[in-house]
Amino acid sequence: MLYGRNDEQARLTSLIDGAREQRRSGALVLRGEAGIGKSALLAAAAAGVPRVLRVTGVAAESGIAFAGLNQLLWPVRDRLDALPPAQSAALRSALGETSGEQGRFATGLAVLTLLADLAEDGPVLCAADDAHWIDTATAEALLFAARRLAAEGVVMLFAARDEGFTGTGLPELRLDRLARCDAELFLAGRELAPTVRERVLREAAGNPLALQEFAAAGGRPPETSPLPVADRVLVSFQDQIAGLPENAQLMLLIAAAEGRGHMPSLLAAADTFGVGLADLEEAERARLVAVAGRSLTFRHPLISAAAYQGATAARRIAAHQALADSADSPDCRARHRASAALAPDEDVAADLQEAAERARVRAGHATAAALYRQAADLTPAREARAARLGAAASLTLQAGRLDEAGDLAVHAEKLGAADLAGLARVHAAVAYERGGPPAAARLLLDRLLFYTSYAADEERRDDLGASPILTKTHTAPLSTTT
Ligand SMILES: Nc1ncnc2c1ncn2[C@@H]1O[C@H](COP(=O)(O)OP(=O)(O)O)[C@@H](O)[C@H]1O
Ligand SMILES: [Mg+2]
After folding, report:
1. For residue 39, how far is its CA from the centre of ligand 1 (angstroms)?
2. Which of 19, 200, 369, 377 could form a disulfide with 123 if both were Cys (CB 3.0 to 4.6 A apart)?
């Protein structure tokens, strides 16, 4: 039962009814702070729809290209064969079944076709929760589809916090705090002394998760009122976790650092500390986490954040180190090694670069760019750092983010990147978008003159590789896509 969400539920119902009765499609972003009820509203909307595809963003996977799409499409992977060959190939590559560079838009188009195919038999809801943590490659594919919905009978709902997943171009529905009367109804069934009830209402300020937690804590919300309410809930969870036995706290930290809820991985890491499944029992009893089969879920992402942030830095690093040592994939290993690194480390940076290359092959350009940036941050040698920033610039350009690509190219140049031609290409593509072919050509000519003024010999000029770029500018427009 949801209190005080009649208008919001009516809007979602009308979207879904439109898909069911008139095959109208629609997309909407539910936006609001942690604990405000985004997931609850998504679940309520999904309740009456026979076909729901779900994906929930997890911070730990936000750097893994198409991790989200894997989650979303796993239940319908048998439908890929029915897609046009190019689209099926794009999805198979995104899902890691095959390799091969794919165009930036092919994956999004394939998602759209697949959703439309599924909707032949009735309305389809695609529910993307915690979209602020969904990896960029998946988010771009989903947004590509969402922006082109028409009359397929598909509804795409996204839920996101204020920070992240912005600039989608989709209509948004903001979830506000519950009104006082609805918050009172929320607490009506709970046995609380009148003064405690009043205090919970005041401190929770209409945030449903805060109402739940502060009431459960017996009306003793932490004395940190100037903090935003979500932070106060976080502190309340930290207090609760601090009251658990040491081993249970350690298990929760490992689970939070692991981030995907993959039990085999977290148990392997736990083993190195001499803790295990039995140590989770108390946290399960307190409903902080639930374990089902091979997966663990935190009841709310703020509990995971509390377990992680409440631990000391030394413990967090030890947890990531153990997770890296027992990782089941090179991408996970790279991520945990990076989280455990206290200082630049070429070995760790090289692992990240390999992860970036794997993302590139699957057309996860934005993800690959982010990994290259992270690799650059952890690279000790200036020249290698500049090269990785240069690679990040090119990939950011391929991801279609011009301003960011230009900034990265400038940064790489300042560090003395050797690939001047590659960087010139980034600048030229940005100039091409802004001012057309003349601007791009002028920029390349300026650069060529600048380079050759201090590299007078022919051989060096050829090294710069500027001539092919110039030729290309004159024969074909520089493309910002692949
Ligand atoms: N309007 C509401 N009425 C009753 N319970 C609610 C309402 N909104 C949220 N809740 C409950 O509050 C908790 C936090 O909501 P959740 O949907 O997880 O928030 P979010 O996804 O925005 O972080 C959940 O236990 C949820 O069931
Ligand atoms: Mg949620």
Report:
1. 7
2. 19
